[in-house]
Amino acid sequence: IGVAGFLRFANLDYAEFQGDEGRALLRATAVLQGYDNVLFLHRKGPQEILTPAVTYALTGRLTEAAARLPFAVAGVAGVWAIYCLGRRLFGPLAGSAAALLLAVDGYLIGFARIVQYQSIVLLMTATALLSLVQMSESPRRQTMFAARRITFAALLIGAGVLAHYEAIAAAIPALYLVWQARRQVALATMGVATIVGALPIALFYIPYVASPIFADTLLYLADERIGGQPPYNHLADFFIRTTLYSTSYAVLLQIGLVLAAILTLYRRAWPAPWSWVAMLGLVAGVLFAFVNPSWLTIGGQDYTVLFFAALFFGTWALPGVDKPERMLWLWFGLLVLVALFLIAKPRTHVYVFMIPWALLSGMMIVRICVRLAAAIGSGLAHALTATALTGCLLLFGAYAYWYFVYNDVEILGTWDENRPAGYWAPYSQPDDQSIFGFPNRSGWKAVGVLYDQGVLQGPYASRNTDAWVTDWYTRGAERCLRNHRYFMVSDRLGHRETERRAAILGELASSHHPIATILVQDRPRLQIWQPGAETEPDQMLPIEQFISEFDTQLSGPNFPLYAPAVEPAIQHPLTIAFGDQIMLKGYALDRAAASPGDTMRLTLFWRANQPLETRYVVVNLLRRDTDGAVAAQAQGEPGCDAQRTTDWGVGELIQDVYYLTLAGDAAPGRYSIIMRMETRDTGDVLRSAQGESTTIGALEIEN
Fold first, then answer.
1. What would the pLDDT profile of 377-402 be if each residue is shown by its tens digit?
2. Whole-angstrom Cα distance, residue 656 to residue 696?
3. What does pTM read for this prediction?
4. How far is CA 82 from CA 91, 108, 369, 679, in A?
């Protein structure tokens, strides 16, 4: 627990908020600002919004450490709950080993160091099952105790589902335990427990399902996550990604322990030589699956899932398996099959089977220790086991320290030069997709302070940092690639990001000049560029001189919020369809009347009905009603050229800004606001119900 706490709490305030954290925090801000439907926009449970919102409301400001602290606490408490659960199932050695493995597990460390739901799911799942295990151990005469345990477990699972619907995976072992104890649980108790567990879920999900947003969420989950052509095979991706979060030695150890546990089952269930044939087949199949992932590809479809389904079915059906062990195999096996073979993009969501995996590993360590005790004596066996576990704790914990806690040098960002020696990795470069919780500070707080001080004024652009992050740290400054006054280039984690940053800087050198560089620990991490020739020297600004001012003065909830973090009230609502793909939901204009030479801000609000495969350009005109004279024109790709239509999420509100500068000789009169959508590559027009050109409003030009 001490190791788990150190790896989760130490330097918790160092890393800047990452993409998914920024989204949760902007929406926590929206809760405090009174936006009604922001929880439904999140496409998952509300917990990771409401938890920081509570801290925000109580303290009036939100720093990285304050926002992340509840999740770090949940992460450590979850490790303790796993120890208690493992101890109940297989004894103190199993509980200690399982807790050790999860204490240094990179996924759980990373998720405990960010504003995300996974630590809550871990804690709720472990404590719910601990409650049910206590119920199954109670004497039959203590029916009231069993009723309390099962009701409490149902409430915990319901709370977990409020964090994310992935928590429903806890129902697999929970239902198994309830079924095993069915004789001591009255039917009325089951009914009460179901109601208690369903109540917190219903409070959120019933209105969510009834809202029009839910249909978009289902489409997103079906297209982006589940996909349409299972089965898949994510074994290679799982191994490479997992060996980044945790050292390869830890991953290989747990794979070996689980294989050993399955081999033990086969040996107990079947007499020789059949048990040996089964064991050889298992080992050969697993090796083929990792070394040659296409070994079961038939007709272009990968059927590796069939081998693993048969493997796990054996653990569920073989005779002589103890109830706790069978529960773990059912829990682990089903989640492995779903995550690695039936979901299109599991990525870090594989964390869902880390708990049963660690418990199975702890169970097998106990069996190894028992065999050693029979062979060499109890004292020596326990000493060897303790030494081995201590060695694992040091080896795996040191890896976690270098990657997650140490920040004098960001190891993942400088992997080629500073990776810890002695840790073998199966890749030449670490994967930089879906990486969470690793130290990364680029210096965005300095940008927010510079805007607040008036040093920076006007729109900015940034092509290599998520808008969720920049919106938080710039305190809602306008982000516009098309009409930017500043271009920010930050130094982010990952070799692909490093290459992308170098390419962006190369492009900027021909049209921009740097005016400021933010230093983090005396190293340049974020550059601010301005269009045009150099007129002033590049200033070197250490981030340390901005952090305190940002945290104390600028971390409050009162700053502008934009779509898609929220859905603002649309000044002029519309419902205009462009083909069957796109809907124009309305527009906003910063003035009702203007004079020649004025610049107006036109904001269009779009929503995609289905995924788009074509990039469109929006053309906007101000045309006089009497003679068709054009007074102003602005065009570009949506979102100030930063939100290509091919990147639009289904159902997501797109806020699209254009600046229309009126001609100095524009005659007074009534002008219509006319727009059209053209294919970016060919110029073909996407027709609306009005035809090729669509009139959306009007403006009066005065003398």
1. 999 999 999 999 999 999 999 999 99
2. 14
3. 0.93
4. 12, 13, 20, 55
